[in-house]
Amino acid sequence: MASTPITIDTINPKVLECEYAVRGEIVILAQKIQEELKNNPNSHPFDEILYCNIGNPQSLSQQPITFFREVLALCDHPAILGKSETRVLFSGDSIKRASQILDQIPGRATGAYSHSQGIKGLRDTIAAGIEARDGFPVDPNDLFLTDGASPAVHMMMQLLIRSKKDGILCPIPQYPLYSASIALHGGTLVPYYLDEAAGWGMEVSELQKQLESAKSKGIIVRALVVINPGNPTGQVLAEKNQKEIVDFCKREGLVLLADEVYQENVYVPDKQFHSFKEVARSMGYGDKDIALVSFQSVSKGYYGECGKRGGYMEITGFSPEIREQIYKLASVNLCSNISGQILASLVMNPPKVGDESYDSYFAEKNAILSSLARRAQKLEDAFNGLEGVSCNRAEGAMYLFPRIVLPNKALEAAKEAKTAPDAFYARRLLNATGIVVVPGSGFGQVDGTWHIRCTILPQEDRISAIITRLTKFHTEFMDEFRG
Asked: Are strands 292-297 and 311-316 parallel, antiparallel or unpaired?
């Protein structure tokens, strides 16, 4: 008997259940249009695609931090370290840092495998950086260096989810990595709704309500995901709120999964980032009180090194037996890439005052973050100026998540097209303007409400063009479907 051929009906059903809107239907269409523009520049009523769908800064012309790239280049090609030309082309402290890092790598080779948790010397550096940020001790053995934060999230879902009866509390709206990962590993997403009317606030009463609802359905809730600053919503949690969340997790015995990859991206003077580790320790809670996993990535912040795939997770409050199992999962992947490991150490230990590269490093960092803040404000104001659109304050991260009240005729047209109303709007926006946004339905939202997620990442000199195109399109769209 021949084996059954692979069909859509015979693949893993968990793969079918998994969805990832950030690179979904609208983006696939945008890539098709981009190819059409390349072959025929007059094929559409615009001359370029403006990607506002994903947090990928360097694809939109953000320049990498010079010091970071100098160190990486020298680590990858150590043969040039001793050459006289190198001292002309590279800063003295980047040469020194690269030499120090190479001394920590077995064989001084970035092309070799490392320890499965990451190079010990780099973990030491990252641990020191976290200590300096939070003011509490860090054990380098609590750190697992990963290819960005996403593999770390998958690793924790593998660890926590045993069956469909295991649930993970996730914010709605949420970054679809979480819904996709939970689906792939066969668990159940337990939604808790952020309060849009309160600036996407997070209420512990809502957590409690959803926890009890899940329990009544026989679901065992294992963990709580918190994204701070928020994706796609852009809010920054108040420290008081974080303390309430920590207490909730301690009381209910939940693992706290803290997605903190946007910790550098805070744009308002009345908010600041506090890690959940810092908050928990300031409350007097130690390893025996709460299990906490903190995720960080080199893809976001001001560095935007998405393609280098660097990141880490810090795990605290787990028994030695559980840590052995997490290490086993890391070992299956052998190790994360070495360039990403190096970048993670640089992000947590950048040039200091007095270093040769400090002035240029600080100027580059400040220019990027200041520009992001201005872009966020301009786009926020533009959305709030559109008919039927309301947009909460852009406090942090890289996104706006405006709500759009669509006319009934637009809702009917979307129904006829067999698509969600916000996806209908996003597709029409793309076809008319070349602007790519993600429908809110890809992130989850309160039933009967419609949103889009728009990044703030197009370069500052392109923001006005985006606003002009968006405003013209929205006015014509509302006129077309009005009444």
From this structure: antiparallel
